[in-house]
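Sorry to interrupt, but I need a hand with the structure work. Can you supply me with one protein entry, sequence and fold together? No commentary is needed, just the two lines. Leave the record below and I will have a look.
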Amino acid sequence: MAKAAPTVALCTRDVLDPISALEKDLLEHYERLAPLLSAPASVEHSRELVARAGGLRQACAGCLVAVLLTPARARPLFDHVKALGARGLGALSELVKESTMVLFETFADQVRSQMLWVFNELIISGPQQHAAAQSAITGVLRFISTGDTSTRSTNLVARLLGLLSHQRSWVVAQRSLPALLLHRLTVLADDLRTRNPKLSAQAASLAAAVVASAPDSSARAGREAILPLLVAEPGDATVEPIVAALVGAGSTALTASASKAEAESPTAASAGRAAKSGLLALLHGRSQRKCVLACLPPPLESAVVFVLSKVPRAQCSGYAGWIADDLLSGCARPGSR
């Protein structure tokens, strides 16, 4: 046990010396961090990272991120790094980005759970941490994309959805993540949601955050993120707030002519176009359309019909012209108009 700290110190300094000045700036305060890195487990983690990753940067990350395995050690480390200011956070962000994938693949479930906490801390620390946020989410997805539907995997997705359901977190994720990654996340969430009802509320919150956070990109988000969440049974409580948010975003702008809305409020017009596009995407499948409308009270169904009635026929045909035909003819639900 007594030899653990010198071993880590030697490993860390040997690895860190060749690395950029930004990362060195963080480690000028290494004496304060050394006691946190003195556990034998940290030494083993660092060695395994060196062997698996084969790179100085990854090994450096392993030495520091190893302390994040235990919340009691992680909190003082993170508080100290925050005290260093933006440069310290930037350095830690780079280390986390480099190490997250290796950590998720190499170590125990404890790491995967703890890295979600790190991801959340980076999000609330500032927009410069986008790359680390993307890396953390990618690590989660790589872990669960193998089809693991165990309680442990479900809980991991639940925590990630919980983080992303806050508007600020969603804005960061939206800017950080490729569209394909967002799509995979929501598909996996929906798949696990059927096995664990507690994900339903978080999935609905995420969908609402998509619509509320960035109107100019919610058309894309409607197709890539909201749609998988609506593969639901009739009466599913998650459907109504999603469609209500879409209708609310678009109905105001669509009541006026496009040119007038554009002149008076470009943002409102953009939100209207996004909601219109999102609704078309959500309702493009006949079975899904019936399911969605079956979950809505008549006033909200009427609002959906109203929004679609403002969509030019040429645009409807891009998604399939029979969408508006079915809805406006009232055949989607007995007695609807």
The two ends are 76 Å apart (CA to CA). Residues 221-337 form one domain.
